[in-house]
Amino acid sequence: MARRGLELITLRDGTILRFGNSEDAANVAYESAEGALLTIDLTRANGAVVVLQRLPEIEGDGPRVVTLSVDWQLEANTDPSAVNSVGIFPAGILEGSAKQRKMTRRAEIGTERRTWRAEAFFNLSAAEQPYYAAIVLRGCPTRLTVHGFDAAYAPLAPAWPQPVVGFRAVNDDAATPSFRFRVSVPVEGLSARGHAVGLFKLDRFRACSMVVFSKAYRDEDRELARYLKAAGRTVVFDICDNLFYNPLNLPAYERASRNIREMVQIADIVICSTAALARVIERETGRTALVVSDPAEDIAPPADLAKPQEAQLLWYGVHGSANAPRGMEDLLLIKDALIEAQSRWPFELVVSSNSREKYEQLIAPLPLRSRYVDWSIDGFPRDLHAATAVLLPLSDNEFVKCKSHNRMTTALNAGVPVIADALEAYEEFAPFCYTGDWQRSLEDVLARPDEARRRAAGARDYILARYAPSAIAEAWEQALSLVHSTDYAGASGRPSLAD
């Protein structure tokens, strides 16, 4: 950083500090501008470090929350490859040796006024202080206007007397089952029970006394979990798939397994979706996992649903995964039974999934009348309620054995008959579905559809009592040791994760 033409300008006292033998100070003109703190003309300068604020000294080392906000405008960069950034710097900035902190971002050049805000956490060292909030300009823009700024840091705030829970997910796509079942439903249900709950946001994490990492075990997730735990927060790790199972020794699954093991050890509480998965977690990590089941989705039929002219047998789900036989290829396990049944009763096999390519490869060549549809939140209700029955054949492996009941209960809750292979999570629904003998079960639903509907309809009360979102919210409440308090949500003065 210490090179000719790189100036350090301190806005608060107007001081210009020169690096080395630089003679460019005269080329850096700064003056107060109307409606702005400062306007700097850098037309003839090679670069500048603009120190916005010297932060107070810290006592001791450790994680701090750093906040920085800059209201600025950069104009006409003369070097498109130049790096113009803003961030927190240690004392070495005065000698040109400072490295940027993690929260530093590349600044955008343009004619519009912009506000840059960030909140991050990282370890600060007393030996590196004082710390400065600064703008580094290289290239250089012809003009910098600063309208306002603010910077501060503080230790992570203590937990509030009543928990504020943030759910951190890998993504927030409602089309992803794990987000719907393990994040969206718990957040809505716990909120309805009076708890301050929301999606975790980094710029608001000081409000959280508890963070649930839902299937989130990437490098940045584990780093965040360690910081939160060191700061006295409760770290919860929730997982819904047996990613320890890797019979093909795939590198991606080896990494996932290592990361999950590490996350399990970091967490104060480990939660999973099935008893079978809890046993795997204990065997693989030595930790006891609490079981909170998936909710049963309640999918209403479209108002304009028309009865199909012939029977429809529906298979739906993710097309598969690399580590284990499962998904669409499970249909090949029952192809003979399906072919034999279609020779006796007319029906169409409907495959609702996320890979037409796999359908064309595996299912379309079979001597069966079949059709593929892309699964979607909007389209699936029509496919489900038009079905004569849902088919759930299952491959026999340790990945599949840990799956939950969600496809079974989604169908039964809609009153649609189900034929399924044996699965531990399906056992309690045996009175309401058909399992085992596929030829006989196909005959039952195709030859006696009204009887099959009556059998499925009996499941709804049972499912709602145990797996409705309200029941699942209560299970989450118990697992997280939250106290039901309808007076708490939205109370004045409490921290909030709401937008």
Summarize the structure.
With 499 residues, this protein is an alpha/beta fold. 26% of the residues lie in helices and 27% in strands.
Features:
499 residues; alpha/beta; Jelly Rolls; Rossmann fold; 3 domains; 6-stranded mixed beta sheet; 6-stranded parallel beta sheet; 27% strand; elongated; disordered N terminus; disordered C terminus
Q: State Rg.
A: 30 Å
Which strand order do you get reading across the main beta sheet? 2-1-5-10-7-8
Per the principal axes of the C-alpha atoms, what is the gross shape? elongated
Query: In the CATH hierarchy, what is the class of the largest domain?
Result: Alpha Beta
**Helix/sheet category:** alpha/beta
Integer average pLDDT: 81
Explained architecture:
By secondary structure, the protein is of the alpha/beta class. The protein folds into three domains: 149 residues, Jelly Rolls, CATH 2.60.120; 128 residues, Rossmann fold, CATH 3.40.50; 157 residues, Rossmann fold (3-Layer(aba) Sandwich), CATH 3.40.50. The protein is built from 13 helices and 23 strands. The strands form four sheets. The chain has a six-stranded mixed sheet, with no helix packed on it. The chain has a six-stranded parallel sheet with strand order 13-12-14-15-16-17, sandwiched between helices. Helix 1 crosses helix 13, helix 5 packs parallel to helix 10 and helix 12 runs parallel beside helix 13. The longest helix is centred in the middle third of the chain and has 16 residues. The chain is elongated and about 85 Å long. The two termini are 40 Å apart. The N terminus and C terminus are likely disordered.
